[in-house]
Write a structure and sequence with these properties.
The chain is an alpha/beta fold. The chain has two domains: about 5-180, NAD(P)-binding Rossmann-like Domain (Rossmann fold), CATH 3.40.50; about 185-335, N-(1-d-carboxylethyl)-l-norvaline Dehydrogenase, domain 2 (Orthogonal Bundle), CATH 1.10.1040.10. It has helices at about 15-25, 35-45, 85-95, 115-120, 160-170, 180-205, 205-210, 215-235, 255-265, 275-285, 295-305, 310-320; strands at about 5-10, 30, 45-50, 55, 60, 75-80, 105, 125-130, 135-140, 140-145, 150-155, 175-180. The protein has an eight-stranded mixed β-sheet with strand order 5-2-1-6-7-8-11-12, sandwiched between helices. The chain is globular.
């Protein structure tokens, strides 16, 4: 294995579980996390429950402890697993501890690779779509909620030896596939995040509850359609979703809506209990990464000249929830009625 030292930045569900599985395989892993109680607990023993059960100590440090000569150039590869709003500050702070040739792999929601590429260089940027889920239960306790793996690729397209080597490392934790169109995979994953996560957070619903609620489903499918249109206008070639083109869930009329509703119900049958990560952030009093999810679509829409009213309103509502001006509620969906009125 070409990577002697693995740095995982962010010890939440994705970073923590990945780090634990790599540690179990004998990899030399250090996790950085800002939560003191979580750091102490991981060092004593990270408890993973849910889809798998594991109890293993994981070497974890506070960011301020990962400094000095001992760690200069230490990391041969970085797995970045922080919220999108912390991407720039987290990566910048660990740059002195990263080998000058070390790749940076984004294990994040939203599309943060553009920011990573500006800081570390596009040639060192590896994008990743995560097809399994997890959540935080408490300090030192993480839950793997669904099965799955990683899809990684050189940002924004193409293949490289670096990616193949990173895939070899990650495959010790989860099945890992290499894509030569990772930007297409990232945008396809974004379709899920902006809809089921964004709308679920707005309304206070799990993925399954979004699909069951007609008003929420209308908003979710409208958000998907807007996002797809923006991606196409930006030149993105969307990757298949569960083996089929995501274009089959685009909604332009009532017939499309009825068909797409059935497809959502079938496609996410095993993910119904998933609680949106942004909703979990709100419950913990944290800022969400909506600017890097629905807000990202709004920004890209402006760049390519397309309006994105549903994504814009989701972003606005979630920001107002963050500010304590409202709560996740079905009441919030009423504000989307004029936007989804085309579904008759």
């Amino acid at each position: 294995m070409p990577y002697k030292n693995v740095l995982v930045v962010g010890g939440g569900a994705i970073g923590g579980i990945t780090a634990a599985l790599l540690t179990q395989k004998g990899e030399n892993v250090i996790v950085l996390d800002a939560d003191k109680e979580h750091v102490k607990a991981l060092n004593r023993g990270l408890e993973i429950s849910g889809f798998r059960r594991l109890l293993i100590p994981v070497k974890t440090l506070l960011p301020g402890e990962f400094t000095g000569k001992d760690y200069t150039g230490w990391a041969d590869i970085v797995l970045l697993a922080v919220k999108g709003l912390h991407t720039e500050s987290a990566l910048t702070s660990v740059l002195p501890s990263i080998s000058k040739t070390a790749p940076v792999v984004s294990l994040q929601n939203g599309i943060n690779e553009e920011t990573i590429a500006k800081i570390a260089g596009v040639e060192r940027t590896i994008a990743c779509s995560i097809t399994w889920g997890g959540t935080n239960k408490g300090p030192g306790q993480l839950i793997q909620t669904t099965d799955g793996g990683f899809i990684i690729g050189q940002w924004p397209t193409g293949k490289s030896k670096m990616v193949d080597e990173a895939a070899g490392l990650l495959s010790q934790a989860f099945p890992t596939e290499v894509s030569d169109n990772i930007i297409g995979d990232r945008w396809t994953k974004l379709l899920i995040t902006v809809s089921l996560t964004g709308v679920g957070t707005t309304a206070g619903l799990t993925y399954g509850e979004v699909i069951d609620n007609e008003a929420a489903r209308k908003v979710a499918l409208t958000v998907i359609t807007e996002t797809y249109d923006v991606g196409i206008k930006a030149g993105v070639k969307f990757a298949d979703l569960m083996g089929v083109s995501p274009s089959i869930v685009l909604v332009r009329n009532k017939a499309d809506f009825d068909n797409a509703s059935k497809l959502l119900e079938m496609g996410f049958a095993n993910h119904r209990a998933t609680k949106p990560s942004m909703w979990q952030d709100i419950e913990k009093g944290r800022k969400t990464e909506v600017d890097f999810v629905n807000g990202y679509v709004v920004k890209k829409g402006k760049e390519v000249g397309l309006k994105t009213p549903a994504n814009e309103l989701v972003t606005k509502v979630i920001k107002e929830i963050e500010d304590g001006k409202r709560k996740p509620s079905l009441e919030n969906l009423k504000e989307f009625n004029s936007i989804t009125a085309y579904i008759k």
